[in-house]
Every structure is written in structure tokens, then in C-alpha cells.
Specification:
By secondary structure, the protein is α/β, with parallel strands linked by helices. It has ten helices and six strands, in the order H-H-E-H-E-H-E-H-E-H-E-H-E-H-H-H. A six-stranded parallel beta sheet has the order 3-2-1-4-5-6, with helices on both faces. The model has no long low-confidence stretch (mean pLDDT 89).
Amino acid sequence: KGAGEELLRWIPCVPDNALYQRPAFANAEERSNFRRDAGAQDEDVVFVVSGKLEPRKHPAGALVALQKHPAANCKLWFLGSGPLEQDLHRQAQELGVADRVHWWGFRNQSEIPPILQAADVLLHPSERDPWPYSILEGAMCGLALLLSDRTGSHPDLVGDAGAGVVFRCGDTSGLARQMSRLMSDDALRRECSTRARQRASKHTEERFCEIIEQCCTDLLNPSPR
């Protein structure tokens, strides 16, 4: 549109850092009990889909991929609500995976950190998302990331940062293979978790304010052309 770089600024997404980075559980036993209440044992690998359940988010793809990965210790949580919720419940029954799926429904922000921190991998199968807050929240909670290649934030979080892996949007077989990879490689999940926290740490309220203040300064004191 003709705007030069001098007129553009990168302003990072910033959720409530303190809320998501603060440990939600006092100890491992407390986390285990929380997981158990949601149908997941210590040996399970929990993939959590966080966001509105609507068509462009492709939540049904997670259910199909779960069916393609029959291991009993592969569990799927849905965190959020939306117009597809009832259809997804029905599809889980038809695919024979309902016993491995837990539905958290809509939750207030204060309720989200323990759910994310009790999971192992954040799964985001969306088709059109420039930079979802849910991914940054998951990274702040130390989740390995499994992202669709149509998710705008994947080059930054999964590329050089190494915080997870990517699959082709809509390719449920490819998604199932990446789920298998993350499930079978504990070291990979731990490495992705560490890198996710590291990358997310730059998204702070302080940095956000610095950028906004600098933008205001530049507007009030434009450099001569």
C-alpha cells in the first residue's frame, strides 16, 4: 500500500505474562490429580486444542488424527466453546475416540493456566490465524507446540526457536505422524517445552509499553525527510 518501513512497527502480542508463567501447581502430585480428574494418567501424553470451536480452526481434524493414532495413552483436550461443539461431540462418538477426549468448554482467563500446564502439547490445527494468543499462552505455560503451517506464528515459534513441530493444514495423516513423533520422543517434548518458555519470555508488558511509547514519540517528533 505504499507504506515505507519507517512508518511500520512490530508490536508483539502480550497476554497476562504473570498469570500464565506462574506455576499453577504446588507439586507434581497436585498436577497428577488435576490430570486424573480430566481422564489423563501420568503416562499419558495430552494434546490440548485451545480456542473457539469454529470451522476455520479445523478442530475436527484433531479428532480424526486421534483416531489414526490408536495408542491408549494419547489423550485430547478441547479448551473452548463454539458453534461446532455439539457436532464435535457427535463425531468423537462416531470415530470411537470419545473415551480419550475431555471437553473443558469455555473458561475464564484465570481458569486457563492450570489446564494448559497440566497438558503436554498445544495442538493448533487452524487454517487462518495470524498470531493466536492461545499459542503464546501455551508457550508461556511450557507446552511443546504442534502447529498448522497456516498459523502465522509458526516461523517465529517453531522455526529458529525450535519450540515445536509443524504439519500441513488439513493433512490429518501428517498430523497423526507428528503426534506420534512427540509422543514417542520425551526428550523432544522437553526440549520444545524449554524453548517455548524461552521464546515466549520476550513478550512482556514492559516491552509492549516501550514499543508503544517509542511509536508515540516518533509520531510527535517525526524525523525530517
